């Protein structure tokens, strides 16, 4: 499989997870958290799929397409670990969906970051809320859900807060 | 359609064009030219699909994944318009497939660049050779071919040198 094949497969898997999560939270009120804006494609997909939800974005430094930049009052700018306590104070435990797309080229560092973020993310995620992650994260409060068909296990992680 | 949907569709279209072109040149000896290395995904796909072909890459400044960097003697480094005369002198008219993936954020500039490159590309492309382009380019020497199924007209351009 070429890197082009593998990249397409990863994006398709990401979209399938986002769409599955959107269906899973259909009956659950609450906001949506996007960790890592990047070029803004995932954010754009979330706001198209989850119209009417408040979507808060966490990003170190905004470099997205101008059409995909969230309004100032929906953006937690800076280091995730610095912004998370501010988000908890502001939003409380009212998140229906959190998407942790925090992988960088450095796999070990990405996993450490996701694990360091997890306790704070769990303070935001309400019972029944969904966590999508591109890094393996585990907690007794989370139950693993089956991935959408065709996604290789380990490519994404789909979990629900008990 | 979200930007994620649209990006996936563009990559799938690109892959379908590359695979169609590979089939079209199956009986035609000759080298392959890749204009724009980028992250190297397309190059990786070409070298997987067209094993045994000499693949020459044109790139202003290499910033690809380390696994996807062509050998020095297959790389024309610098401005396309500067490298093309060198390539013509070195390779002659022996190209079976040329992939012009030269689009940048600036649509008008991308089209100007592709049009400026075309006369030189046609000096390299042999009769029966295939030109894939992400920009609209036209020449009496080129006949348009049908795009693979599912690709929106205008997303890619598939042509054969008469």
> How would you classify the helix and strand content of chain A by structural class?
alpha/beta
Rounded average pLDDT of chain A: 96
Number of helices of chain A: 4
Strand arrangement within the widest β-sheet of chain A reads: 3-2-1-4-5-7-6
- The CATH topology assignment of chain A is Rossmann fold
The outline of chain A comes out as: globular
The CATH superfamily name of chain A is Vaccinia Virus protein VP39
CATH class of chain A: Alpha Beta
Strand residue percentage of chain A: 15-25%
How helical, in percent, are the residues of chain A?
25-40%
Q: Radius of gyration of chain A from the CA trace?
A: 15 Å
Largest interface: A-B, 22 and 23 residues
Instruction: Give the distance, in angstroms, between the N- and C-terminal Cα atoms of chain A.
Output: 38 Å
H/E element string of chain A?
A: HEHEEHEHEEE
Structural domain tally of chain A:
1
The CATH architecture assignment of chain A turns out to be: 3-Layer(aba) Sandwich
Largest sheet of chain A: 7 strands, mixed
Oligomer: homodimer
What are the main properties of this structure?
seven-stranded mixed sheet, Rossmann fold, homodimer, globular, 4 helices, 162 residues, alpha/beta
Written description of the protein model:
The structure is a homodimer of 162-residue chains. Helix content of chain A is 38%, strand content 22%. Chain A is α/β, with parallel strands linked by helices and 162 residues long. The mean pLDDT of chain A is 96. A seven-stranded mixed beta sheet of chain A has the order 3-2-1-4-5-7-6, with helices on both faces. The first copy, chain A, has a single domain, classed as Rossmann fold. The N and C termini of chain A lie far apart (38 Å).
